[in-house]
Input
Amino acid sequence: MDARQLYDNLKQIQEAKGYYFSNDKDRVFELLEALLANKQRYGYMACPCRLASGDREADKDIICPCVYRTPDVQEYGSCYCNLYVSKAWNEGTIAHDYVPERRPPEKMGF
Output
């Protein structure tokens, strides 16, 4: 699968759930390429904006779409990576505020 196929598949699935890809297509395709690279590297599509451990169980919270996406989009209109956004975020009717990291430090291996 390439980034274009992944885009087409995810777009259909996620838009039906109310999640949209950012209008910044360059950024979206960079992230999709990174997801595919992580799938090849780890066997699963770990969030490209976070450091994956390579242990699927330890990383299950950051397998895209991560468990933090819903609260991020509800509160900020965008997920941490800015891959998935709300319709209002894409339309520019809400501020594009920085989305803070929700993943607990103990899950990040620090």
